[in-house]
UniProtKB/TrEMBL annotation:
Coiled coil: none annotated. Residues 350-381 are annotated as: Disordered. Pfam families: HTH_18, Peripla_BP_2. Keywords: DNA-binding, Signal, Transcription, Transcription regulation, Transport. The lineage of its organism: Bacteria, Bacillati, Bacillota, Bacilli, Bacillales. It is found in: Cell envelope. GO terms for cellular component: outer membrane-bounded periplasmic space. This is Iron complex transport system substrate-binding protein. InterPro entries: ABC_transptr_periplasmic_BD, Bact_iron-sidero_bind, Homeodomain-like_sf, HTH_AraC, Tscrpt_reg_AraC-type_HTH. It comes from Fontibacillus phaseoli. GO terms for biological process: iron coordination entity transport. Belongs to the bacterial solute-binding protein 8 family. It comes from the Bacteria.
Length: 658
């Protein structure tokens, strides 16, 4: 066949989809029809036979047919139901330039009657199922019909591509090649090894082995690679935000996207975008230029903590790294503090005093040239951290924290500077923090210049890679909450760092009392053995996210503090496997939903239109759905988790839905 001519015909065809149908012929049943317009039928399962005009064909699994208007079709099932999707359309040639010759009916693809066994049937199935799911649904049916029409051209292209492959001397697509093609088409949709194995009807072990032999990677590692490569293209070639790019490549959670991107590339999306835009040119920012002259930016920094998620909006300020002379850094510190003192006038006299003291301390550090902080008059002590022993002030007075704000507040310590992200996504903590506490920048975009002007005597961070930079400013402790088995261990450890051991015991005693009070409150209203599920469908599109017990989105509050029982599949697929979340299609989310559902919402955001697979769930029909606010429940520190648990207990006990 002349594939160039064949494809050119479709390029000049004006298509109008008239109907998309999903139907089935029951075992030993028969269905006959006349095509009212041209159409495709894709059989996706079942056994039997079909007659298309005068030709007879057997059916055993996937089968694709096309027929023009007026064609006769008879489908007869044997002992298995035959399931199929049908796409009916009308088409004509629009004004031509003479490039396309007028085709006879025998060559016109819209009028041809044919039956095929597809080379890669699952790819065709995914396209037609997406067309059907959006046909005549949603807020704007016309928009969804436009989407279905665009997918129709994709369906035709894929069909032609497979026909062309079948005609070539090369062997048909093997399973690994089919999956490769599927991943490149659907990388922005939820993909799991279990789902791929089910679609291709292979065991996960066999499928993974075949794929690894072909690519050198597991299917999921390959999905991540494709997504990150696409994200790189968008970061360097568009002005899209991190949130927009995350959604476009299949990550509904921008924090998780940032984490994966950084692990794969060594840079945050903001840093990558800045590098791509700067190229080899000098930065317009004298501050960044000055920083760059002292030390290179780290190329291998990534988060290795599932309880920590970065939030980046407009790119990152480069953090300096390296082992250049401490004298240069000390000079920069003193110079910055001097400018701050001069520009501040008579305001905040006590801050200027603290800054001058820090400048004198930094001078001592520079003279010693060993990177350590001099002891203050109150003395120092050593604490054990993930970075080894660190000498810290005996009584820290000016603490800066880029994470773990709730742990610090629980011990009655008010930091002088925190990351804005902690307040934006820790709404329970925000009222506890006075306006005098300075913003040091969003998580992942912390301004070292700002940190230095605060003259801290202790810095608390989650990020091991930031330790070297921070420790040049003040004694720095890397705190990793994942190494503690529960809230008691976590608060006790923070108490050791801040020298607030008695306060830690006091807070934990109060925590235990409040935890038991919250549990008692719901014991009277929740039946014994009732199961719970946390679902987020407001920060995702076209599917739902189910949350485990690792912390964020209320998981720690609901499952750990309140001790509520997770739905069986939440326990087996998330909690037991230490997974923080799973993204599911609406067709399968019901498998994870328990007797009660906790749903996350965004204040001021219109909830999506929910499909019948959700609205028909028993928890929904029996009005056992409770709403929680994302900005209150994203944080997972002990103080936030306790306040979350108390609010949820009030909702359950008082039957308050929001």
């Amino acid at each position: 066949m002349d594939w160039e001519e064949y494809a050119d015909f479709w390029n000049h065809a004006l298509i109008q989809i008239t109907e998309i149908r999903h139907s089935a012929v029951r075992p030993w049943g028969q269905e006959t029809s006349l095509f009212a317009s041209s159409g495709y039928l894709l059989m996706v399962r079942g056994k039997g036979s079909l007659r298309l005009d005068k030709s007879n064909h057997g059916i055993d699994g996937f089968c694709l047919l096309h027929a023009g208007k007026g064609a006769f079709l008879s489908i007869e099932a044997s002992d298995e139901e035959i399931e199929y999707y049908a796409i009916y359309y009308q088409g004509e040639i629009y004004a031509r330039t003479g490039k396309v010759k007028k085709l006879s009916p025998s060559k016109n693809p819209m009028k041809q009657t044919s039956v095929w066994i597809p080379e890669a049937p699952v790819v065709l199935f995914q396209i037609v199922r997406a067309m059907y799911s959006d046909w005549d649904r949603g807020y704007v049916p016309a928009l969804n019909q436009l989407y279905a029409k665009s997918r129709f051209y994709e369906f035709v292209y894929e069909h032609i591509r497979q026909l062309q492959l079948g005609e070539s001397p090369s062997k048909p697509l093997d399973v690994a090649e089919q999956i490769l093609h599927y991943i490149h088409k659907h990388y922005n949709e939820p993909i799991s090894l279990e789902m791929l194995a089910k679609k291709w009807n292979y065991s996960m072990q066999y499928l993974s082995k075949q794929f690894r032999q072909r690519t050198g990677k597991s299917p999921i590692d390959y999905v991540i690679q494709v997504r990150i490569d696409k994200a790189k293209e968008m970061l360097s070639g568009t002005g899209a935000s991190a949130q927009e790019i995350a959604s476009a490549v299949g990550y509904t959670d921008v924090f998780y996207f940032n984490r994966v991107f950084k692990k794969q590339t060594g840079l945050t999306p903001g840093q990558y975008k800045a590098e791509a835009s700067l190229g080899n040119e000098d930065s317009d920012s004298p501050w960044i230029t000055f920083i760059s002259s002292i030390g290179g930016m780290s190329q291998h920094r990534y988060i290795n903590n599932d309880n920590h998620y970065q939030y980046n909006e407009k790119g990152d300020i480069y953090m300096f790294n390296g082992s250049r002379s401490t004298r240069l850094l000390t000079f920069m510190l003193c110079f910055t503090l001097m400018l701050t003192a001069c520009s501040g006038g008579g305001a905040a006299e006590n801050r200027n005093s603290a800054a001058n003291a820090a400048g004198q301390e930094a001078e001592t550090t520079g003279q010693e040239n060993n990177g350590s902080q001099a002891s203050d008059t109150a003395g120092t002590r050593k604490v054990s951290t993930v970075m080894g022993e660190v000498e810290v002030p005996a009584e820290p007075k000016r603490v800066v924290a880029d994470w773990y704000l709730g742990d610090i507040l629980a011990l009655d310590v008010m930091p002088v500077g925190v990351s804005k992200t902690l307040l934006d996504y820790g709404a329970f903590l925000k009222p506890l923090v006075p306006a005098s506490v300075e913003d040091i920048g969003r998580d992942g975009q912390v301004s070292l210049e700002k940190v230095m002007t605060l003259a801290p005597d202790l810095i608390i961070t989650w990020d091991q890679e930031a330790y070297e930079n921070y420790s040049k400013i003040a004694p720095t402790v890397v705190f990793d909450s994942t190494q503690y088995s529960d809230i008691h261990e976590e608060i006790t450890a923070m108490g050791e760092i801040l020298n607030k051991q008695d306060k830690a015991k006091e807070w934990l005693a109060d925590f235990d009392r409040r935890k038991e009070a919250a549990r008692s409150k719901i014991d009277q209203v929740i039946p014994e053995g009732a199961t719970f599920t946390i679902v987020d469908y407001v920060t995702v599109e076209k599917f739902a996210m189910v949350v485990g017990d690792l912390g964020e989105r209320g998981g720690k509050a609901i499952y750990q503090i309140l001790g509520l029982t997770p739905a069986p599949k939440v326990k087996s697929e998330l909690i037991d496997k230490k997974e923080s979340r799973v993204e599911l299609s609406w067709e399968t989310v019901g498998d994870y939903v328990g007797d009660y559902v906790i749903v996350l919402v965004n204040e001021g955001q219109e909830p999506p239109k929910l499909p019948s697979t959700w609205t028909s769930l028993p928890a929904v029909t029996h009005n056992r759905v409770y709403e929680i606010e994302m900005k209150k429940y994203f944080a997972s520190d002990p103080m936030s988790a306790l306040l979350q648990a108390e609010e949820i207990a009030d909702k359950l006990a008082g039957n308050t839905k929001n």
